[in-house]
């Protein structure tokens, strides 16, 4: 996946201002930054939802400008805001989104069960989503992103506001998917989380990437990598704390 000099404004406001990076096959790549940095806008452009004002996107050898449909067929998206039908059961949500991804009803059902099982929710398959905890809903959101067997996953803050058990389940699943060859773009404002699962990270602030490397290399520039955190790196780069 290659993103080259992406720009996106909303009115006069430049939400994404010249963002370039590429992700290697099989890599977990983290896009880090505080709220408002432009992470979601970047993911929305990469996932064909929002057209960039300028710049180039190539995914799986396909150009966004002429082959958005081909790109859509090889990506899975877990949006920051949960997209679930509260009145439907977990399995019916999965089947619905599987059909939307172009699966026939039998494949949709088969994949829905497999992905619910993967996320540890098969026993709740027939339960209404309205009754689920925030963490369970997040896990279903991730299970939905897997419908249609994507090669590249976009996960936008998949662990915000959830219990530690669901959070660990999500980490383990992402790492498990990587073992099977999945490529992942992961956004978060939790630096520690990125440090734990990402091979490389880009730190974003004010619509720009201000640093990009392995967590180890970024931390090494400040001192001993086992004592420095990515929070420290952000503070050093911007003069601001992430939590401000
Ligand atoms: N549809 C929109 N209209 C106007 N402003 C937007 C829109 N989407 C995002 N923004 C603004 O762009 C900036 C970046 O937002 P976003 O990409 O959601 O950041 P992040 O995901 O890093 O928190 C924010 O200041 C946000 O308010
Ligand atoms: Mg966001």
Written overview of the protein:
- With 244 residues, the chain is an alpha/beta fold.
- The chain folds into two domains: 1-74 and 151-214, P-loop containing nucleotide triphosphate hydrolases (Rossmann fold, 3-Layer(aba) Sandwich); 85-149, no CATH class.
- It is 38% helix and 24% strand.
- It has helices at 39-46, 64-72, 90-100, 105-118, 134-145, 164-179, 191-197, 215-220, 230-238; strands spanning 2-10, 13-22, 28-32, 54-59, 62-63, 75-78, 152-156, 183-188, 200-205, 208-213.
- It has a six-stranded mixed β-sheet, with helices on both faces. It has a four-stranded antiparallel β-sheet with strand order 2-1-4-5.
- It is globular and about 50 Å long.
- 41% of the residues are buried.
- The mean pLDDT is 95.
- It binds adenosine-5'-diphosphate and magnesium ion.
Task: Give the topology.
Blueprint: E1 2-10, E2 13-22, E3 28-32, H1 39-46, E4 54-59, E5 62-63, H2 64-72, E6 75-78, H3 90-100, H4 105-118, H5 134-145, E7 152-156, H6 164-179, E8 183-188, H7 191-197, E9 200-205, E10 208-213, H8 215-220, H9 230-238
Parallel strand pairs: 3-8, 3-9, 6-7, 7-8
Antiparallel strand pairs: 1-2, 1-4, 4-5, 9-10
Helix pairs in contact: 3-4, 4-5, 5-6
